[in-house]
Amino acid sequence: MTVTRLDQGQRHRPRMAFLKKIEALMMEMQNPDTGIKTEMQRVMVTNIPHAMAGNDILQWILQHLQVTQEEALHLGDLFVKYGYIYPLQEPKNLTLKTDGSLYRFQTPYFWPAQKWPADDTDYAIYLAKKNIKRKGVLEEYEKEHYNMLNQKINYKWDFVIMQAKEQYKAGKERKKEDRYALDCQERAYWLVNRTPPGMLDVLEYGLDRVTDPNENKVNQKKTLDVYRREIMYYQQAIMKTRVKSSVSLGGLVKYSEQFLSNDPILSGCLPSNPWITDDPEFWDLNAKLVEIPTRMRVERWAFNFSELIRDPKGRQNFQLFLKKEFSGENLGFWEACEDLKYGDQSKVKEKAEEIYKLFLAPGARRWINIDGTTMGITVKGLKHPHRYVLDAAQTHIYMLMKKDSYGRYLKSPIYKEMLAKAVVPQQTVKKSSPFLFGRRTLPSSPSPIILRQREEEAKAREAATTVDITQPHHRASWSPHLAVYTGTSTPPCPASQPHSPQALPHSTAGPGPFPSGPGRPRAAAMSLGRWLRRGRWSSPAFTAVSPEGSAVSHGKVQPLGGRERRLRRDSRAVSR
C-alpha cells in the first residue's frame, strides 16, 4: 500500500485541523536547515542513525513557538503520544523526557492523519511475530488480544502465522541498527493504536462522522465520490437493527418485575442478610450443591434457560432429566467446553483433544449430534487448538437444549418434585445495624411539639428525683403558710421547742421572694413552680418540710404518714 496523497482519508476525522497543525510542525522540525539536528547515536551496543535527544526537541519548541516551558513540554508529550515521534530507549513509555533520552521521527506512513485502519489482521501478525521472537513471552493484555484475535479471525489464522514467520525471517536479514529502529517504530505504532490497559487512548474520539466539520462547505461542489460515500453510509444505517423505545422500555419493566423478588437489596433475603445479622444460614441454604435448595432458587430456574444452566444445582437437576431422555452427553459437552475456555492455558491442547475423542470423533463414547457445517468448522479449528475453538459446536448444543429439552424439563416430574420439596426459610430477627434497608420499615419522626412535651416531662422527673435527703434535720410540725428557704446553711431549730412551728428565713414575717399573704396566692404558687424547675429541691430547707421522713444512705424518700398527706392537700388548695 502506498500513500498517494497526504490528506487521504482525512475528510471523516473530526480532529483533522489539530492533526494538520502537528504535521506542519513535524515537517518544519525535519527541515535540514531550520529543524532539529539529528545524528548517529549509540544505544547500548548499537549505533542508531537520525536520532535526537529529548532536550533538543524541547529547546526547538521553546525557540520557534515562543511558549513557556510547561506548554512546550506538554506539546512535546502530545507529539510522542500521537505517534509522530517515538522513543528508542523506553518504547513502552510514550512521554517526552527532557534529558538525553533518544527519539526518532515516525515515518509519515504511520501518522494518525493518514487514517489507515489498524486492522486486526495486521495486529495479529505483529503479536504472532512477537510471540515467535520472544518464544511465548508476551504481556498480559497482549496474551488476551492474541487469544481473542485467534478466535475472531480463526478462518485465516494460517495466513497470519505464515506472514509472521516471513516477516521475522526478513527482519533477521537486516542490519542490527535497522532491526532495532524498526522494532521500536512498530511497537510505538501499536501502543498508539492498541492502547494497553491504564494508558490514555489519545485517538479515542467516538464514531466517524459523515463529513469533515473543518472543511469549508460554502462553495463546495459535491462530486460522485461524495454521493457514493453518503449512500454507503445511509445503507449501513438502515441495516442496523432498531427497536421502538416503548418496546425496549416494556422489556426492561418486565425484566425488573420478574427479578424484583430475587433482589436482596430491594426485597431482602431470607432467612436474613448475613452481612447485617452475622448469621451464615443464608450461605448454607444457597451453597452451590446443597442437597435441598430454596424455593426462590428453584423458581428462578424457570425464568430462562440461562438462569438454569448457570446454577450448579440447576445443572445437576437438569442432568438427571437429560439422562432419562438419553441426551446427557449434550450438557456434558457444554460443561467440557466451559472448562476449556476458563481452564489452564497450558492444558488447552490436551483438553481439546480429549473433548474431540469423547464427543466429536466418529464412534465416540458420548457422541453428540451436530450438523455437518458446524462439525467441519470445529474439526478444521482443532488443527490449531485454542480456548474458543469449540464455540461453534457449543453454541449449537446450547440452542438445542434451550429450544428442545428446556421446555420439557419445566413440565417434567423431576422439576416439579424439586419445586415441591424446596425449602422456604423463615425470616429471623435482625440485630441493630447502621444499614437500614431490606424488609425493615423505618418509623416516622415524631412531631416537634411532642418532643418538646417529652423534654419538659423528663426535666420535671429529673427535678423530682434529685431531692437531697441526706442532710440532718429535725421533726417539725405542719405550718399552714409554707415558706421556702433559699440560703446555704441549715436553719436553726431550738431544742426546747421540737414540735413548734419552725421559723424559716424569708417567711411571712420578713421580706422574701415569695410573699404568702392572702392577696397573692396565685403569684406565689407560680413562683414556687418556677423555683422548683430551677433545681432548688436540693436546698436544706426541705429537710424540715418532711416531719416523718428520715435521712437514709441510699438516697430514696421513705413513705410518709397522715401529716404528709394533709400537707399535700393544703398545698394544692394554696396553688388553686
The gist of it:
The protein is mostly helical and 576 residues long. It has 22 helices and four strands. Strand 1 and strand 2 form a beta hairpin.
Note the topology.
Elements: H1 16-29, E1 39-43, E2 46-53, H2 54-65, H3 69-81, E3 85-87, E4 102-105, H4 120-134, H5 140-152, H6 157-172, H7 176-193, H8 224-239, H9 245-259, H10 274-277, H11 281-285, H12 295-300, H13 305-310, H14 312-324, H15 328-342, H16 348-360, H17 372-381, H18 391-410, H19 413-420, H20 448-464, H21 521-533, H22 562-575
Antiparallel strand pairs: 1-2, 2-4, 3-4
Helix pairs in contact: 2-3, 4-5, 4-6, 14-15, 15-16, 15-18, 17-18
Radius of gyration: 45 Å
Strand content: under 5%
Structural class assignment: mainly alpha
Biggest β-sheet: count, sense, barrel?
4 strands, antiparallel
What is the helix fraction of residues, given as a range? 40-55%
Task: Please describe what this structure looks like.
- By secondary structure, the chain is mainly alpha-helical.
- Helix content is 48%, strand content 3%.
- It is built from 22 helices and four strands.
- The chain has helices spanning 16-29, 54-65, 69-81, 120-134, 140-152, 157-172, 176-193, 224-239, 245-259, 274-277, 281-285, 295-300, 305-310, 312-324, 328-342, 348-360, 372-381, 391-410, 413-420, 448-464, 521-533, 562-575, and strands spanning 39-43, 46-53, 85-87, 102-105.
- The chain is extended and about 90 Å long.
- The termini are far apart.
